[in-house]
Write a structure and sequence with these properties.
Strand content of chain B: 15-25%
Oligomer: heterotrimer
Shape of chain A: globular
Largest interface: A-C, 50 and 51 residues
Largest sheet of chain B: 7 strands, mixed
Chains: A alpha/beta (326), B alpha+beta (427), C alpha/beta (340)
Radius of gyration of chain B: 38 Å
Largest sheet of chain A: 7 strands, mixed
Helix content of chain A: 25-40%
Strand content of chain A: 15-25%
Shape of chain B: elongated
Distance between the termini of chain B: 79 Å
Structural class of chain A: alpha/beta
Number of strands of chain A: 14
Distance between the termini of chain A: 44 Å
Number of helices of chain B: 10
Number of strands of chain B: 18
Number of helices of chain A: 13
Radius of gyration of chain A: 20 Å
Structural class of chain B: alpha+beta
Helix content of chain B: 25-40%
Chain lengths: 326, 427, 340
């Protein structure tokens, strides 16, 4: 056991992958000399050299597309995009190439590429650095979307993603980099298939992922004080969604609340809600509830941003309403 | 007509650039057609001599239509069509779906149309149960008597099915919705045989057994707790029956009024006029009812009995009352009563009907304080103004709670019914 | 080569010889031309659907440039790629079947005219996003370089792509990392319906490569021998480790942008003027004048090409379609290692 931050866990995962597989290389803006915009790759340039830790120009489309081409041609690139907002400059490559090439070529080629990026708000970075657009990417067939919310997943998802023959997008919530905790020294790869129950409970299922897992667990403890026993599910993988874990939980608790930092309209929360209604309708003893971000571009001022994002108090209130009504 | 885009279904020939007899070569522009987008040149895919120009400038034709024929340059016996476009390229429209029982039939009988109009049933929303999914009278009636929807959660509905609890009889939670908890509670109550347990059933045997338990508990409680007294009055229905015959002559069969409706209305009015019999006996004595909600005893086909309420029966005209009675009987027998109907009758009427006994001395439904019984209507010798005549007579009985009223009140009540029946036109 | 614009390379005339390699260049151009002429017919008869973009007039570019590549080199193409695919060796039958939506198509009917793939021939597809293929080419070349292979990636795109941000990102990145990419700009003067001079401040596209420190050449794309000569030089430069090379191939499409294009934006006289420079006619004249081919040889060539196309169409027509049950096949790999 060692005390480790989320950032360090990501770095360890990269280091491990670079050591184990010579086809792996990291490329992105400021990943080398600077050490990564969020410090994730600090020290890797010194260890692995500029051929494998590649600083790129500010050309998201070119270097994401180059990652796709390299992946098609035998490499295992890890591409870092500074934030999800910037990934829109590479959306053409992600959507029109990474997600389509295998199908369009009838399986003749695949894109075993990993794209990492920061997502989410809460750091007063305002409306061009704070959004949670992973739900958009989760809309796209041909991609696998991961959201590590724990140290174990920060450490363990990358290697699994690199073994995947298809593109995997990893969304790292910006508020998590400095979180820390104990991680076993032998922590290894974690799956990219199943959701995890992070807290077992009987009264209501709260489904969340990424940056809102911590807030949801906090809310669950508060709910416990008032006698409501919440089960908290960490989706971990946003595409494909692990329906089984969600539905089994809803079948036990009969109430579901989705906490999603994306905007409510057309959101992942909407997708999960629909699946629950489709697959567990006759288990529901209350309408499915949602806690999402307010439908505004995220503002700068701390109090406004806090009001726009899902918070433990709102989660407690929403869960309480679901349980209290019956 | 060549296809110049996936969205092109037809085109208008604007101009021929060749004439019959003109030699043409592969790649020559022979015509101009107007598509929805623009005028486009039509090129020829064969070498030869133009034979016939089939389509006139200005004609709009589907893709695949032959525009012209071209003969081989050598004196031609055959004439291949211009372009590769052949009439075969024109797709035949898909055949209409065959009526194999899956699609609603448009055939509607006059009866069905009239019933639907009278009872405000949307025929388009009905699934026919007849041959070829034809909508039958029964389908319209079922739709007309469908109970008001109870707001309930999906889980509550599933549990209600599994536990054989009638959702319409389950009280809602504070939010106005029936949740699983209320259904489980209702199911537990039934299992304990508590008298207030509302019952209905999906499986007839279980329903009958459960109902028997409920009736047993309820009637035992009534006889144990309520000191009944009984009064009887024979009422001459000659005027009422004559008026009814006349009245029904003007009504279609389905709208005709039965004598039981008159008796029910008279009972309701009498209950309003003698309010001591209309209400409940509680811990603190008699509580008058908030209206005249007449419980109508309905015997069920599989055995058992329910007595759901017709709310404010004293204020309904006969036609409306008749509708409610029919509706209640249908729904009672279908196990689809509403909770409020089961919960709050203020007085009960039990009518044995035309096949029944001469009179009925009933057992009061607690916590009500009175039950009115009507025996079979039968012609009997009857003295009128010193002469014996034959009159249709009904024996009206009252079973009343002696804690709440004495015989004088009961007598007044029966007397009111008797008087009311003499002026049926005022009912 | 040095950075900057090179003069238009003129074709060298060579003495005719019994096995004159120019005859094969002619045959390839004729094959592409006749194939596409048949495509027009098949499209008009609704056998081919979707968007279909024809290469007629531009054949010298694919035949000259792809002929300069080796089998190990990679190709990234555009939506106007029938010619590239055929010249690379994708069979006429596989291309026809693809456009017919058949399972025997080179993308099993999932791609259609715009997305022909043959990874076995290192043909990485027709890309229907203008400039969308450039980053792929950069990545393919990056991987070849990192793995120590000597392959070149030839990336075809049109003049329209030069206006896209992706073009500039990729020119910069490929030059910065000195990657083995041969950028082949098929300048047919129109980005769909908009003329080059109406969208570009600098219309000398080869000159713009110079701003990335990349060697370049502008070539008469209507002369297959000139294209071939320039491409051989460029490939040698790239393979020699001198970084990417930019070839501007000045050409012209004789037909509209796509089948449903009324072609209102071009002067008919302009089209006629360019048709007088038809690359097939030009080479044919050289070959007949020099005695390398005679009328009988040309007729035999035409007959062989027609027979190949007839057979391809017949086979495609007879081929089955993909089972709808396999609709979602090839979305993800069928084998995936599970962990955790």
């Amino acid at each position: 056991m060692a005390e480790i931050t989320y950032r360090e866990a990501l770095r360890e995962a990269l280091r491990d992958a670079l050591r184990r597989d010579e086809r792996v290389f990291l490329m992105g803006e400021d990943v080398g000399r600077y050490g990564g915009a969020f410090g994730v790759s600090l020290g890797l340039l010194e260890e692995f050299g500029p051929e494998r830790i590649r600083d790129t120009p500010l050309s998201e489309s070119a270097f994401v597309g180059a990652g796709i081409g390299a992946a098609m041609n035998g490499m295992r690139p890890v591409v870092e995009i500074m934030t999800v907002n910037f990934s829109l400059l590479a959306l053409d490559q992600i959507m029109n190439n990474a997600a389509t090439l295998r199908h369009m070529s009838a399986g003749q080629c695949g894109v075993p590429l990993v794209i990492r990026m920061t997502t989410g708000g809460g750091r007063q970075l305002a409306a061009q650095h704070s959004h949670s657009l992973e739900g958009w990417y989760a809309h796209i067939p041909g991609l696998r979307i991961a959201a590590p919310a724990t140290l174990a997943d920060a450490r363990g998802m990358l290697w699994t993603a690199l073994q995947d023959p298809d593109p995997v997008l990893v969304f790292e919530h910006g508020s998590l980099y400095n979180t820390s905790g104990d991680l076993p020294d032998d922590a290894g790869p974690t799956d990219l298939d199943r959701a995890r129950i992070r807290r077992a409970g009987r009264d209501v299922t709260i489904v969340t992922y990424g940056g809102t897992l911590g807030k949801t667990l906090t809310a669950a403890e508060e709910l416990a004080d008032s006698g409501v026993d919440a089960e908290v599910i960490d989706l971990r993988v946003l595409r494909p969604i692990d329906d089984v874990t969600v539905m089994e939980s809803v079948a036990r608790t009969h109430r579901a609340l989705i906490v999603d930092e994306g905007w409510r309209s057309g959101s992942l929360a909407a997708e999960i809600t629909t699946r629950i209604v489709e697959q567990a309708f006759y288990e529901l003893d209350a309408p499915v509830g949602r806690v999402c971000s307010a439908e505004v571009p995220l503002p700068y001022a701390q109090h406004l941003e806090a009001a726009a994002l899902p918070q433990p108090a709102g989660i407690v209130r929403a869960a309480g309403e679901l349980v209290g009504a019956s | 007509m060549p296809s110049l885009g996936a969205d092109m279904t037809d085109g208008t020939l604007l101009e021929w650039l060749v004439h019959p007899g003109d030699p043409v070569h592969h790649g020559d522009i022979v015509a101009v057609v107007d598509t929805d987008k623009a005028a486009i040149d039509v090129e020829c895919f064969a070498d030869g001599v133009v034979q016939d120009l089939v389509v006139e400038p200005g004609d709009r034709v589907p893709v695949g239509t032959v525009l012209a024929t071209i003969a081989d340059a050598a004196p031609p016996p055959t004439a291949p069509p211009a372009g590769a476009a052949s009439p075969a390229a024109v797709r035949a429209p898909a055949p209409p779906p065959t009526g194999d029982g899956g699609e609603p039939s448009p055939v509607l009988s006059p009866l069905v149309r009239r019933l639907a109009a009278a009872r405000h049933v949307d025929l388009a929303a009905l699934h026919g149960s007849g041959p070829g999914a034809r909508i039958m009278r029964i389908d319209v009636e079922r739709a007309a008597t469908a109970p008001t929807r109870v707001r309930s959660t999906p889980l509550a509905r599933r549990l209600a099915r599994e536990l054989r609890v009638d959702l319409t009889s389950v009280p809602t939670a504070a939010d106005g919705v029936v949740h699983a908890g209320q259904v489980r509670h209702a199911a537990d109550t039934v299992a304990r045989g508590a008298p207030s347990a509302p019952v209905a059933a999906a499986a007839a045997a279980d329903r009958t057994a459960a109902m028997r338990t409920t009736i047993a508990a309820l009637m035992a409680r009534s006889k144990r707790e309520i000191p009944h007294y009984y009064l009887t009055e024979s009422v001459d229905l000659a005027a009422a029956m004559a008026w009814l015959r006349e009245c029904n002559r003007r009504l279609p069969v389905t709208r005709r009024i039965v004598p039981a409706a008159l008796l029910l209305k008279a009972s309701a009015l009498a209950a309003r006029q003698v309010p001591q019999l209309n209400g409940f006996w509680g811990e603190h004595g008699f509580v008058p009812g908030g209206g005249v909600h007449v419980g109508v005893a309905v015997s069920l086909r599989g055995g058992g009995l329910v007595a759901p309420a017709i709310h404010d029966a004293d204020q309904l005209d006969l036609a409306a009352l008749m509708d409610r009675m029919r509706d209640l009987v249908t729904r009672s027998r279908g196990g689809r009563l509403r909770g409020s109907e089961m919960a709050d009758p203020t007085i009960t009427v039990s009518n044995v009907g035309e096949q029944g006994s001469e009179s009925i001395l009933g057992v009061i439904y607690p916590p009500q304080v009175a039950l009115v019984g009507f025996g079979r209507i039968a012609d009997r010798p009857w003295a009128v103004d010193g002469l014996i005549g034959v009159r249709p007579i009904v024996r009206v009985t009252l079973a009343a709670d002696h804690r709440a009223t004495d015989g004088a009140v009961g007598s007044r009540f029966l007397d009111r019914i008797a008087r009311l029946m003499q002026k049926p036109e005022e009912l | 080569m040095t950075a900057g614009t090179q003069p238009v390379v003129q074709s060298a005339t060579r003495p005719a010889a019994p096995a004159d390699p120019r005859v094969e260049l002619l045959r390839q151009m004729v094959r592409v031309r006749r194939f596409e002429e048949r495509c027009v017919q098949l499209y008009s008869a609704a056998k081919i659907r979707g968007f279909m973009h024809l290469y007629i007039g531009e054949e010298a570019v694919a035949v000259g440039a792809i002929g300069a590549l080796s089998a190990d080199d990679a190709i990234v193409s555009t939506y106007r790629e029938h010619g590239h695919a055929l010249v690379r060796g994708v069979s006429a039958e596989a291309v026809t079947a693809e456009m017919f939506g058949r399972v025997t198509g080179c993308s099993r009917g999932r791609g259609g005219s715009m997305h022909l793939f043959d990874i076995g021939r290192r043909f990485y597809g027709g890309n229907a996003i203008v400039a969308g293929g450039l980053p792929l080419a950069v990545g393919l070349a990056l991987a070849d370089r990192m793995r120590g292979r000597s392959a070149v990636t030839a990336c075809f795109f049109g003049d329209g792509a030069v206006a896209e941000g992706e073009f500039h990102e990729c020119m910069n990145l490929a030059a910065l990392w000195r990657l083995p990419v041969l950028f082949c700009c098929e300048n047919n003067r129109y980005a769909m319906g908009t003329a080059l001079e109406r969208t570009h401040a600098v219309t000398d596209l080869a000159a713009r490569a110079g701003s990335y420190g990349m060697p370049s050449a502008a070539v008469d794309g209507m002369d297959v021998l000139a294209v071939r000569a320039a491409a051989l030089d460029a490939v040698a430069s790239v393979r020699g480790g001198h970084g990417p090379f930019f070839l501007e191939l000045r050409t012209y499409r004789f037909r509209a942008h796509s089948m449903y294009d009324p072609d209102r934006y071009r002067d008919k006289a302009e089209i006629a003027r360019w048709k007088r420079r038809d690359p097939i006619d030009r080479l044919l004249k050289q070959l007949t004048d020099g005695g390398a081919v005679d009328a009988a040889a040309v007729a035999a060539m035409e007959a062989a090409v027609a027979a190949e196309i007839d057979a391809a169409v017949a086979a495609a027509d007879a081929a089955p379609v993909e089972d709808v049950a396999d609709l979602t096949r090839f979305l993800l790999a069928e084998q995936r290692t599970r962990h955790g």
